[in-house]
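About this split. The held-out portion is used to measure sequence recovery: a designer receives only the structure tokens and must propose an amino acid at every position. Recovery is the fraction of positions where the proposal matches the reference. Here is one held-out target exactly as it appears in the evaluation file.
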């Protein structure tokens, strides 16, 4: 793995002072210097583009992270204790913050900016991504409802109801929903429907690979909802 964090985000900017220059081998946790791994998701469609501050220091380049943008891979960060602030890009206006907490060596974390159901105020959370229960023989997935305009949804895989009545950002309030589930590796038609109804909000066709680890999430406003499938990589 080489290059800086945001070069792999699909958005402009990068962790400047705290991000390490690189590590030895793609997909390997073996590095010359201990690191922790961090990704960012701006899933707050009713908030402005955000700058990230770590321990009070700007950690994103000019332009910030627009709503709907997210890391395509985890980036390495020096382990330690960090407070995280999301501010309106280019302005010293705090939108949301995460109190100081430890980012452990070889740990994986997602920093999430989101809107609660029916609320325009941005919220922030740190998710610890635990891969210890994933398997190499199955595909592994979890589902997040990150749309403030879809307060209750059902998840269907190939027309089979898989998860029911998932509320907006419920994984923040129930950390067990951040765990990964196993399923047969194959191609899937993913549909997210209004909970208890046959009304499709968004859909996607994807192939989930053996040993792959995926975060499936609903995002966006009511007039632009989408199902996204993010494969874990670093």
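Reference sequence for scoring:
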């Amino acid at each position: 793995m080489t290059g800086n964090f945001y070069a792999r985000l699909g958005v402009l900017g990068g962790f400047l002072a705290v991000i390490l220059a690189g590590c030895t081998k793609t997909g390997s946790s073996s590095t010359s210097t201990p690191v922790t791994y961090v990704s960012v998701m701006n899933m707050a469609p009713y908030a402005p583009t955000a700058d990230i501050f770590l321990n009070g220091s700007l950690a994103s380049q000019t332009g910030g992270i627009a709503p709907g943008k997210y890391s395509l891979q985890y980036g390495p960060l020096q382990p330690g204790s960090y407070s995280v602030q999301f501010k309106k890009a280019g302005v010293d206006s705090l939108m949301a913050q995460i109190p100081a907490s430890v980012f452990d060596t070889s740990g994986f974390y997602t920093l999430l900016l989101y809107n609660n159901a029916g609320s325009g105020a941005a919220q922030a959370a740190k998710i610890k991504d635990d891969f210890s229960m994933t398997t190499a023989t199955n595909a592994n997935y979890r589902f997040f409802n990150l749309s403030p305009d879809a307060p209750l949804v059902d998840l269907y895989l190939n027309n089979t109801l898989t998860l029911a009545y998932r509320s907006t950002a419920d994984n923040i309030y129930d950390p067990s929903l951040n765990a990964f589930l196993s399923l047969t590796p194959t191609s899937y038609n993913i549909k997210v429907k209004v909970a208890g109804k046959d009304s499709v909000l968004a859909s996607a066709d994807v192939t989930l690979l053996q040993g792959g680890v995926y975060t499936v999430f609903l995002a966006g406003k009511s007039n632009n909802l989408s199902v996204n499938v993010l494969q874990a990589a670093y």
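Annotator remark: The CA atoms of residues 122 and 227 lie 21 Å apart.
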